């Protein structure tokens, strides 16, 4: 679908006007989170599962909800995280050393899911090691709403997409400023839940000046999909979150800033992140 042909339709609905599939529980929860009244954009903080350990990561996730988060992106620690910057890589290494496993992180998901939609972020090897069908079933049973697999290319996604659809999970793809329009259109057409839109090239991490880059990529992404567009990578401050909303983003994803705060306040990581999330949420209120 080229940009001129794309058209906006209600969140969670296919351009044909019908839902993409019947088992849409996760998509419905995500759509409701993006559609909350009084929000300029949904706030989706990132949580490294098992960091500093499983119990405290669950406490950090609860603090996200207390602070006003609308959804949470829950990361599974992995030994070769190609999309993660140094702060999140270090947290993943610490989580693995603390004994975090996929099942342990799914336990964190199960604890948080009653409060807000949880979208699991995991690398493809972890999915395939468990088996696609078994993995999505375990994710469904843990109460997750969606799945992000950053190293799953469009051409290899159909099997995972089919399994997610069958389990009522939204498979959330990523697009970047380097994505050509034709490819962005194909990715956007298959998106479930929301389209994870990378604000800049490179890995995750805080950046000082980003606002000028937000408008072009958000405009392109929204022209090529029927689901909400959530902007991530580098957003760290309420001012940057507001700038993302000003640029038209339907959601804002914040990761490294929160993981760094948790690392710097080992005595009370939940308290440290709660205040930051509350500030970000306040900046996104209509």
In CATH, what is the homologous superfamily? Aldolase class I
What is the C-alpha radius of gyration, as a whole number of Å?
17 Å
Shape: globular
Number of helices: 12
CATH fold title? TIM Barrel
CATH architecture: Alpha-Beta Barrel
Q: Which class best fits the helix and strand makeup?
A: alpha/beta
Query: In oligomeric terms, what are we looking at?
Result: single chain
Write the layout of secondary structure elements.
Elements: H1 25-34, E1 42-48, H2 54-67, E2 72-75, H3 86-97, H4 102-112, E3 118-121, H5 124-130, H6 132-141, E4 146-148, H7 158-167, E5 170-172, E6 174-175, H8 181-190, E7 195-198, H9 211-223, E8 229-232, H10 238-246, E9 251-254, H11 256-264, H12 269-283
Parallel strand pairs: 1-2, 1-9, 2-3, 3-4, 4-5, 6-7, 7-8, 8-9
Structure keywords:
alpha/beta; TIM Barrel; 286 residues; nine-stranded parallel sheet
Structure description:
With 286 residues, the chain is of the alpha/beta class. It has one domain (19-283): TIM Barrel (Alpha-Beta Barrel). Helices cover 45% and strands 12% of the residues. The protein has twelve helices and nine strands. The chain has helices at residues 25-34, 54-67, 86-97, 102-112, 124-130, 132-141, 158-167, 181-190, 211-223, 238-246, 256-264, 269-283, and strands at 42-48, 72-75, 118-121, 146-148, 170-172, 174-175, 195-198, 229-232, 251-254. Strands 5-4-3-2-1-9-8-7-6 form a nine-stranded parallel β-sheet, sandwiched between helices. Helix 5 (124-130) packs across helix 6. The longest helix has 15 residues, at 269-283. It is globular and about 45 Å long. Residues 1-23 and 202-209 have low confidence and may be disordered.
């Amino acid at each position: 679908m080229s940009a001129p042909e794309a058209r906006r339709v209600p969140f969670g609905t296919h351009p044909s006007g019908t839902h993409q599939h019947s088992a849409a529980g996760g998509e419905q929860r995500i759509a409701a989170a993006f559609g909350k009244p009084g929000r300029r954009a949904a706030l989706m903080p990132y949580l490294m599962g098992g960091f500093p350990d499983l119990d405290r990561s669950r406490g950090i996730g609860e603090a996200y909800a207390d602070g006003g988060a609308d959804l949470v992106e829950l990361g599974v620690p992995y030994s070769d995280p190609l999309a993660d910057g140094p702060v999140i890589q270090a947290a993943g290494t610490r989580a693995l050393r603390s004994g975090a496993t996929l099942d342990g992180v799914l336990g964190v998901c199960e604890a948080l899911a009653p409060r807000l939609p949880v979208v699991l972020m995991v690398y493809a090897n972890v999915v395939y090691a468990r088996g696609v069908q078994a993995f999505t079933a375990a994710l469904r049973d843990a109460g997750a709403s969606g799945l992000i697999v950053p190293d799953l290319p469009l051409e290899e996604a159909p099997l995972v997409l089919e399994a997610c659809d069958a389990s009522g999970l939204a498979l959330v793809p990523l697009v970047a400023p380097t994505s050509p329009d034709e490819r962005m259109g194909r990715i956007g057409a298959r998106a479930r839940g929301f389209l994870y839109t990378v604000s800049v090239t490179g890995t995750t991490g805080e950046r000082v000046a980003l606002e000028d880059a937000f408008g072009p990529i958000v405009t392109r992404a929204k022209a090529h999909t029927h689901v909400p567009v959530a902007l991530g990578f580098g957003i760290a401050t309420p001012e940057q979150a507001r700038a993302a909303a000003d640029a038209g983003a339907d959601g804002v994803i914040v990761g490294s800033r929160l993981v760094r705060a948790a690392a710097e306040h080992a005595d009370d990581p939940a308290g440290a992140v709660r205040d930051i999330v509350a500030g970000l949420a306040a900046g996104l209120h209509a």
